[in-house]
Amino acid sequence: MKNVVHFIIKEIAKSKYTLLLPLAIILLIVSLSIINHHQSGATQHELEETFKNRKATVNFLIGRALSKERAVGLTEEQRQSLDSLLVQEQYLQEISNKLKVNDLEIASTHLAYINEYEKYMQLVSIPYNSKSLLEIEQRKVEQLIEHDLSYTEQATPYNTALFTKQLFQLLFSPATALLFLLIFCYKYLFDRENRLFDFFKINSLSPIATYYGYLISFLLSILMYIALASLLSLLPPLIMGHLNTVHYPIEVAVGSTIIMVPVWKWFVFLPISWGIFVALLLILAICLLKQRISLGMTLALITIPFMVGYIISLHYGFYMANPIHLFISYETHLLATDCSIIYLVWMFILLILCFIISYPIIKSQWITFRVADFHISKKQYHPQNKWKLLQFEHLKKKRKGHVLLTLVLLFGIMGGTVAVVNQQFQAIPIKALKTIEDFQSFIIEIRTNWKASEEDFEIDNPEENPYTAMVESLNESYSMLENLKSKIGSPNFYEKFREALRSLDPPTYKEIDGALWTVSVMASEEQQNILDEKKITAWPLGHQWISNFDKHSDTFDDKRSTALQLMQERNTKYGNNSLFTVYKYLNWNIMLSVLVIFVLLLWTSMSDERQPNPSIDFLTTKPIRMTSIYITKWVYNLLIAYSLLLISSVFVFFISTIIGGLGESDYPILVYAAAKLHDGYFYSVIDDAYFYFENLSTLILKSSLLIFTQIFFLNSLFSLIGKWMKNHYTTIIMTIIVVAVGYFIADHYIAMNGMYINPFIYFDTWNVVDGWKSIAANDTKVNFLNGSAILFISGSLLFCIGLLSKRKVSS
């Protein structure tokens, strides 16, 4: 075994790809650092806005107290509260001055302000801060002072331990784990097919020594990768002298409670959990590959147990025995508690158990160790009477591994969409908590003004004070929201949440001036009417529909822009059923990525036969016409694309249904319209647009038809360019360039007359189906029916041009 390990490690070390690994990590670090450096400032801006608002409130209270002092004088208690406000103003001014010059060392001043505010609260009954938010700030600032730290950029860090945390989450992710598994499988199969196993056997090495030699070699490679990635990731804060930021506290929401977790917990957990996870994958892979199971089946069998673990975690929550938590739900359930070390120890024990169980499987004689002849193991080309050329194309792609790799990537893209949708669905309680706290801050700001007016209003009978009812109403709203926070995680929370938000909304849009009817306001109410009429459960959290007019609005007012962003966040509708997953897949326009994968890896063209081994010369020596070769390649591309897309879509749809159910096919979705075409349309005066509602299932079917024609058109374009080009890679590059340029022109000049005939407009699948493209073009001709027809007709035209054009067989 020692000889096998030494041989494999030496072979890996000599590989040029191994030498490129440090360069790739360094390139990632430098690129991410530059990007973050140019986009930094989110935390500073957030702090500036927070203290700017507090300073404005303090100035208002000070001005009110001074006016009262000049008019009627102040009591001793009121004088003390004024003095406290003046001290708070000094602290807030000092903080603001530092933030303006990008100085985030405000922790001690911030704590002093909080302490002074608490003294102020003992004197008066006009709280202008949220007590819960202030407690969170106090816990954070106390930890910063304890470790002699300043506030730092959290959203886009570039020179602190938070940047290392961001790198860890990229380098030790499920994607890199899958990549490591693929490298192991390909290395194993390559060596087996090249009869390296026979070489080991001739040198008196047992099968157990060979298999365990491969496994241990890659386990050592895991450790080397972890050490290399960790060392390089720690260099930025180490060089900049900010390594002490490993103690920086990060807020993690556990239900309605915010827990402060230091950054170093990610540093400990992520590398160890990633290493254990990859080791489990490799043990499963070596046991399956030893049984002569194909690579595709091996990947499927490895995926199944972890997919089951993921589904269990979604349905039943956190369990210490579930290895999926090495990547999922670890922050809330492990890092925010003291269970992380216990969990990692248990997972390490599980790894040892799997390693022991693998021994009898590898030692078993269920199959013969001797590797079959290399040429026999490769499937020979024995054409049948029909579809000879199609078999020829498929066999070439299959031998190159392109079909399997494309299928793996398709499952990765669609499965990744499912995972992202479900992870965001799991994050709804956190979003709800943030929404509630935003509302409470808003209520406190209004209540401060009314409370001040209530105290200033001189009246003999306090019950007749007109401001008292307003203050009490706001107090009730605040208490209602505070009570709602305690119900986060309960089964009926989402229903209570929507009811609470609706109770805080203004009257129905029909009760206000028609000049204020935006698409968002109108559509939210009309959609709710449809949901109530059809008895459909609304997607959790969002009680309003935010239209694209608000999402794409150009606002120069930062406060208005922030308000819109908060509104969109709190009204983001989310589900975890299969229909919702498909909706998000289309809405995110991930189909463009799928089409690029087909072009890069799977599709074949005439140029594919010319270089570097011109098999087209061989084909044309047979009684096969050039047009037959061209048609065959065109048909093969269509068939393989449609079949792989169908297989992966059905599988992912099935998994999504298991996780969250099918969903409501009649769920009403907003559809925009540039003009009124029939009854049932609504019109917004402000946005100058029509809209109506259509079933989610109908829109998905329309999108499917559009995707069908997109593949048809792109395949014809690729085939035509491949007919004209000599080199296959040139064909790929030219196709992508043509599509990118066409898409750019269609997107930026969509309002030009006649632009609706541009087929590239219709590659933005969901925006075509939901009518937004017709709004952008101000043309009703931009719709999915015309788009499908134009893509099909233009694709057919490109196919005919390629079929009829002439080109010499070889140069």
How do the strands and helices of this protein lay out in sequence?
Elements (H helix, E strand, L loop, with lengths): L1 H13 L1 H24 L2 H30 L4 H25 L6 H15 L9 H16 L14 H11 L2 H20 L2 H7 L4 H34 L8 E6 L2 E6 L1 H26 L5 H22 L13 H6 L4 H24 L10 H4 L10 H13 L1 H25 L1 H29 L9 H20 L7 H12 L14 H16 L13 H4 L6 H13 L7 H10 L3 H12 L12 H7 L4 H35 L7 E6 L8 E3 L4 E7 H29 L3 H21 L16 H5 L2 H6 L6 H21 L7
Helix pairs in contact: 1-10, 2-10, 3-4, 3-18, 4-5, 5-6, 7-10, 7-11, 8-11, 10-11, 11-12, 11-14, 16-27, 17-24, 17-25, 17-27, 18-19, 19-20, 24-27, 24-28, 27-28, 27-32, 28-29, 28-32
Characteristic terms for this protein:
single chain; transmembrane; 5 strands; mainly alpha; three-stranded antiparallel β-sheet; 811 residues; 32 helices; globular; transmembrane helix; 68% helix; membrane; two-stranded antiparallel ribbon
